[in-house]
């Protein structure tokens, strides 16, 4: 059927048909903004939504509202990765090794006064890579880290020793963790005592007592890591180290005035 005949049957003017078929040319400013948004979308591995992209552009002096950003995301076809949530049961049995001194006070007024740590597992081929981190709760900066193929006390102690050597904190610093065997081991407790660090522990099975570090691991796994894990340990360690740098120097945090941890520390100094 010809276009003339089809338009006649549908009662549509041919000029309207050709107008719809003609692709719309985007304005130069919109094309530039599209390239900028795609670059940010790729840099953050499709993890940022309307708020996140707006904050990233605001750092460069480009102010776009949340609802306008939503329209732009649809226009440029930028699909955000959807997180998968794990559900945990609550428990209130107190810690045996150390009491819960932190008590969810996650926002200290000075750096290197409250640290928190934890260990997570990362899929590597048919096995696992274990990552231990130490976070300064003042800025949410990762100040110590270590990777290993075994989740033992040496892994957690290695991350703590790195944090102490990099930050050189004052005595009576508080270190908080869960009740994992890596943190209750004599080797790790001795490492704390050597640096005159006070130990605090979550209540048994209560992940909310260490929510900030748990949130960091959620960001790593759902916003950064490939969904099917890594092919080998070298690839995994390299990418995890890249995320630590990205998290400390590029990713904005609402707890630090929507600034990356490193920049927040500089401005607070």
Automatic annotation (TrEMBL):
<protein>
    <submittedName>
        <fullName>IS3 family transposase</fullName>
    </submittedName>
</protein>
<dbReference type="GO" id="GO:0003676">
    <property type="term" value="F:nucleic acid binding"/>
</dbReference>
<dbReference type="InterPro" id="IPR048020">
    <property type="entry name" value="Transpos_IS3"/>
</dbReference>
<dbReference type="InterPro" id="IPR012337">
    <property type="entry name" value="RNaseH-like_sf"/>
</dbReference>
<dbReference type="InterPro" id="IPR036397">
    <property type="entry name" value="RNaseH_sf"/>
</dbReference>
<feature type="domain" description="Integrase catalytic">
    <location>
        <begin position="107"/>
        <end position="268"/>
    </location>
</feature>
<dbReference type="InterPro" id="IPR001584">
    <property type="entry name" value="Integrase_cat-core"/>
</dbReference>
<dbReference type="Pfam" id="PF00665">
    <property type="entry name" value="rve"/>
</dbReference>
<dbReference type="GO" id="GO:0015074">
    <property type="term" value="P:DNA integration"/>
</dbReference>
<dbReference type="InterPro" id="IPR050900">
    <property type="entry name" value="Transposase_IS3/IS150/IS904"/>
</dbReference>
